Amino acid sequence: MPIEGVYSIEEQRALVYEYLQVPHGGKAAFLQAHGLKVDRFRRWRMQVLADTLEHGLVPRSGGLVSVDEARLLKRLLEENAALREQLAARDVAHEQEVAERDEELARQRRAVDALGKAIEILHPSGDSKSSESDPPAAQPPAQE
Description:
Elements: H1 9-20, H2 27-33, H3 38-50, H4 67-122, H5 129-132
């Protein structure tokens, strides 16, 4: 448990979802094990079910969560987790594909550089770029 019972929004949401899956008769023990007061937790539950937890707004009408709603919530959470795993796997595959393409591009650039150097060597010295950058020969100073 965090210091002085302070929970982040994600921790509050996770506790509410976990609480909704606790069978009847174990909910008080759940709250006690996590050091939560019933009133505070009821407010969190209402906020989570109304999707206002991030905003700190407490809906006016609460309501009990039926067994069917709890099952639906559990199924949706599991589906969400599976989709997040699929997305993470797709991201990893995409990053691997990008890395492979970067390696191929680097290999092709090295080949182009090597071919450019070979062509420069094969050209006559008058046509090569390196002859243009050669400094002019120094002339001896004129004598009077």
